[in-house]
C-alpha cells in the first residue's frame, strides 16, 4: 500500500509541479506573482460564462419551484457534470494511460498494473474537479439555500462532489482499457487528438449559443422549463446515478440515505472493477501498442540530388521547419491555427443562428454611410483581439522542449532562428485577421474599401503582438514537459502573452477613442493606429533580436 500511495503522491507532484511551486514559494519569492497572474487570467476569462450559468440555474430553480420540482436543478447539474466528464474523460484517459511519455519508466518499477492505473486515475480525478465542481457547486448552493436545507444536506453534497467523477471516469477508463487491448489506437493518435479537439470546440460553441437562446422574460422561462421537464426525466433515466444523487440530497429519512449510499456503492464497485480488469490487460495493451512496423521508403538518386542541390535562406528554412512541426502536432494545430479563426467563426455562427429582427436591423444599419467607418473601426478591434489571443508566438521556443539542443547546434544565428519563428507566428495571426475581414464582407456587408483598410491596419497591428509574445517565450521558455498539452495549454507564457496583447490593444484603443470623440475623420484614426502599431512593431522586433542572441546562449540543452 505504501508504494502505491507514494506513486500517487509522485504523480500529483509531477502533474502540478508541487515541488517546483514549493521551491518558488520558499526560495524564489520574486516569482510569486506568476501563479497569481495565471489565476487572475483564468478567473477573469471564466467570469462571463460563470455568470450566465448561475443565472440559468437560478431561473431553472425558480421554474422548478413553481411546478413543484425544485430538485430538477440537481438532476440537470449531475447529468451535465457526468456527461462532460465521460466525454472528455475518454480522450484524457487515453492520453494519460497510453500516450504519456513517462509510461515506459513505470513498467520496470515494482508496481502492479492496477497501481499504475490507480495512480494515474487519481490524478485525472483531481483534474476533473476543475470541471465538476464549477458545474455542481452553484446548483447545490442554490437548491440548499432556496429550500432551507440543514447540515446533513451540506455534508452529503460535499461527499457527492468529491466522488462525482468516479462513475463517469471509471466507465471511460474501462472502455479505453478494453479497446486498447484489441485495437492499437496509438497509430491513430493524431487523428484522435484532432477529433477530440474539434469535439471540444463544438461543445464550447454550442454551450455558448445555448446560453444565449435561454428566454429572459420570467413567464417565458417558466414555460421553457415546464416544457423541458419530461426531457429532464428522460435524461435522468438514461443516467441513473444522477437520479440517485438527486434523491440522496433531496429526499429525507431512510430513502435519502438509501439513494446516497447506493451512489457511493456504485462508485466503489466500478472503481474496483476497473482496477481488477486493468491488472489483467493494462501492461499487455501498453506493450503491444508500442510495436511498430518498418516502412520501406526507397529514395532515388535523382530525388537525393534535387534535395541536396536546393538552397534556401536560413530564415526561410527555419520558418518551414517551424511550420511543419506545428502542423504535424494536432494539439498545436487546434490551439494555434484553429483558435485563431475560432473567434470570428463564433461571431459568424451567432449572426447566422440568432434570427432576431433587432439584430437584422442593426446589421442593415451598418451599410449606412455615417455608420460604416465606425463599424470598420469596431471590426479592426475584433481583428486585433483575435490576433492577440494566438498562443503560437508565446510558446514558440517552449514547443522545442528537450530537443532545443538541435536548434542550438544548427549553424544558424539566434536572430535568424527567432525571425523564422516570428514569420510562422505572424502568419497564424494574419489568418485570424483575414478570417475577420471575410466576415466583415460577407455577413456585415462592410464596403470593400473600408474592409481592406481595416485589414491592412490589423495586419500591421499584429506585428508587435506576435513579436512581444515571442520575446516573452525566448526570455522565459518552458522546456521541460511530458506532453504537448503542457507545452502550450499549461504554459504560463500563454496567459502572460494574452495580457501583453491586451496591453497593446489598450494602447491602440487609447489612441482611437479620443480621436473619435473629438470627431477627427476615421481615415485619420486608422492612419494613426497603423503608424503607432508600426513603431511598436519595429521596436519589439529589435528587442526580440537583441534578447535572442543572449538567451539562446544561456539556454541549457
The share of residues in helices is over 70%
What is the H-and-E element order?
HHHHHHHHHHHHHHHHHHHHHHH
Report the strand count.
0
Broad structural category: mainly alpha
- In whole angstroms, the N-to-C terminal distance is 38 Å
Our estimate of the beta-strand percent is under 5%
Biggest sheet, open or closed, and with what strands and sense? none
Radius of gyration: 27 Å
Number of domains: 3
* Low-confidence segments: 228-232, 291-295
What's the overall average pLDDT, rounded? 77
Q: Please work out how many helical segments DSSP would assign.
A: 23
Shape: globular
Labels describing this entry:
557 residues, mainly alpha, 3 domains, 23 helices
Describe what you observe in this structure.
- The chain has 557 residues and is mainly alpha-helical.
- The chain has 3 domains: 1-43, no CATH class; 71-289, no CATH class; 314-554, no CATH class.
- 81% of the residues lie in helices and 0% in strands.
- The chain contains 23 helices and no strands.
- The relative contact order is 0.08.
Amino acid at each position: 500500500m505504501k508504494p502505491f500511495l507514494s506513486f500517487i503522491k509522485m504523480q500529483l507532484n509531477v502533474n502540478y509541479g508541487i515541488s517546483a511551486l514549493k521551491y518558488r514559494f520558499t526560495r524564489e519569492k520574486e516569482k510569486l506573482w506568476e501563479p497569481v497572474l495565471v489565476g487572475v487570467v483564468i478567473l477573469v476569462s471564466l467570469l462571463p460564462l460563470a455568470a450566465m450559468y448561475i443565472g440559468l440555474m437560478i431561473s431553472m430553480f425558480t421554474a422548478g419551484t413553481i411546478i413543484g420540482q425544485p430538485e430538477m436543478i440537481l438532476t440537470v447539474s449531475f447529468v451535465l457534470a457526468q456527461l462532460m466528464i465521460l466525454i472528455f474523460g475518454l480522450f484524457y484517459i487515453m492520453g494519460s494511460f497510453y500516450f504519456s511519455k513517462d509510461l515506459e519508466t513505470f513498467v520496470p518499477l515494482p508496481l502492479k498494473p492496477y497501481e499504475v492505473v490507480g495512480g494515474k486515475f487519481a490524478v485525472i480525478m483531481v483534474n476533473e474537479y476543475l470541471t465538476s465542481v464549477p458545474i455542481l457547486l452553484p446548483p447545490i448552493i442554490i437548491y440548499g439555500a432556496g429550500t432551507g436545507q440543514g447540515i446533513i444536506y451540506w455534508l452529503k453534497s460535499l461527499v457527492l462532489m468529491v466522488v462525482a467523477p468516479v462513475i463517469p471516469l471509471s466507465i471511460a477508463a474501462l472502455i479505453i482499457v478494453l479497446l486498447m487491448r484489441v485495437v492499437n489506437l496509438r497509430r491513430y493518435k493524431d487523428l484522435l487528438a484532432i477529433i477530440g479537439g474539434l469535439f471540444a470546440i463544438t461543445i464550447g460553441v454550442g454551450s455558448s449559443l445555448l446560453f444565449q437562446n435561454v428566454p429572459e422574460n420570467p413567464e417565458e422561462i417558466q414555460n421553457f422549463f415546464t416544457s423541458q421537464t419530461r426531457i429532464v426525466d428522460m435524461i435522468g433515466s438514461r443516467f441513473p446515478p444522477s437520479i440517485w444523487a438527486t434523491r440522496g440530497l433531496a429526499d429525507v429519512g431512510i430513502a435519502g440515505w438509501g439513494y446516497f449510499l447506493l451512489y457511493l456503492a456504485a462508485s466503489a464497485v466500478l472503481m474496483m472493477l476497473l482496477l481488477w480488469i486493468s491488472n489483467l490487460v493494462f501492461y499487455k495493451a501498453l506493450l503491444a501498442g508500442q510495436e511498430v512496423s518498418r516502412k520501406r521508403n526507397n529514395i532515388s538518386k535523382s530525388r537525393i540530388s534535387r534535395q541536396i542541390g536546393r538552397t534556401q535562406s536560413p530564415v526561410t528554412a527555419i520558418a518551414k521547419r517551424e511550420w511543419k512541426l506545428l502542423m504535424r502536432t494536432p494539439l498545436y494545430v487546434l490551439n494555434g491555427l484553429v483558435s485563431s479563426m475560432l473567434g470570428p467563426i463564433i461571431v459568424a455562427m451567432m449572426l447566422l443562428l440568432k434570427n432576431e429582427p433587432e439584430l437584422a436591423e442593426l446589421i442593415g444599419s451598418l451599410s449606412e454611410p455615417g455608420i460604416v467607418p465606425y463599424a470598420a473601426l469596431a471590426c479592426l478591434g475584433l481583428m486585433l483581439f483575435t490576433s492577440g489571443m494566438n498562443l503560437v508566438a508565446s510558446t514558440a521556443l517552449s514547443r522545442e522542449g528537450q530537443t532545443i539542443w538541435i536548434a542550438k547546434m544548427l549553424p544558424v544565428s539566434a536572430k535568424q532562428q527567432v525571425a523564422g519563428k516570428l514569420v510562422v507566428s505572424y502568419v497564424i495571426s494574419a489568418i485570424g485577421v483575414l478570417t475577420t475581414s471575410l466576415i466583415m464582407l460577407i455577413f456585415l456587408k462592410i464596403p470593400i474599401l473600408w474592409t481592406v483598410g481595416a485589414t491592412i491596419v490589423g495586419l500591421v497591428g499584429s506585428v508587435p503582438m506576435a513579436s512581444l509574445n515571442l520575446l516573452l517565450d525566448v526570455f522565459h521558455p518552458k522546456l521541460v514537459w511530458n506532453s504537448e498539452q503542457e507545452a502550450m495549454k499549461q504554459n504560463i507564457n500563454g496567459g502572460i502573452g494574452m495580457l501583453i496583447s491586451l496591453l497593446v490593444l489598450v494602447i491602440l484603443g487609447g489612441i482611437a477613442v479620443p480621436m473619435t470623440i473629438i470627431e477627427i475623420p476615421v481615415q485619420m484614426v486608422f492612419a494613426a493606429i497603423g503608424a503607432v502599431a508600426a513603431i511598436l512593431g519595429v521596436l519589439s522586433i529589435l528587442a526580440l533580436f537583441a534578447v535572442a542572441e543572449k538567451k539562446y546562449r544561456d539556454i541549457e540543452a
